[in-house]
Amino acid sequence: MATIQQLLRTIPYGKQNATRAEDIARQLHLPTNGNQVETRKLIREAIAQGHFIVSTNSGYWQSNDIEEVREYIASLRRRAQKVINRSDDIRNMWNNANPNNQI
Q1: Residue 2's pLDDT is what?
Q2: Is residue 41 within 8 Å of 30, Cβ to Cβ?
């Protein structure tokens, strides 16, 4: 299993150097099929340990730039709100369709 230190050596600094999860997985000899579950788990563990790893659709990078980190936080919050809105919509649709069996 790859370590966080190996991961950090694989993920570059700077948005312009972003690298895709599949490429990180390949370099760390982790599975590259699907959506790189093991790689993303390792990235979450590194973040939990205090490493500033951010991402966009172009890939992951380490950041020491406050604006990049702020933008990433805002992006995560927007995504979280979209998930909350979708769950609210599904609950409301269920409740409307099932007035005697509410969620």
Answers
A1: 87
A2: no
